[in-house]
């Protein structure tokens, strides 16, 4: 069984990907892409530990 930490990390990576792909091509889209990248980085860091 996966630990809750790995489940959370996977969910964060998926959430980050959704934000990146759903971002419109405007200034708010750039903000969403940045947030998505940060969320994915946190998820990847959680998986590595």
**Secondary structure: number of strands:** 0
Helix proportion? over 70%
Q: What is the C-alpha radius of gyration, as a whole number of Å?
A: 12 Å
List segments where confidence is low: pLDDT < 50 over at least 5 consecutive residues: none
Please state the structural category.
mainly alpha
Shape: elongated
Q: Give the biggest sheet.
A: none
Number of helices: 2
Distance between the termini: 17 Å
Mean pLDDT: 87
The proportion of strand residues reads: under 5%
The H-and-E topology, N to C, reads as: HH
Care to describe what's here?
The protein starts with a helix and ends with a helix. The mean pLDDT is 87. It is built from two helices and no strands. The chain has 49 residues and is mainly alpha-helical.
Key traits:
elongated; 49 residues; mainly alpha
């Amino acid at each position: 069984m996966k630990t809750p930490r790995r489940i959370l990390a996977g969910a964060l990576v998926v959430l980050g990907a959704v934000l990146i792909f759903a971002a419109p091509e405007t200034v708010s889209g750039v903000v969403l892409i940045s947030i998505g990248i940060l969320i994915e980085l946190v998820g990847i860091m959680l998986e590595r530990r």
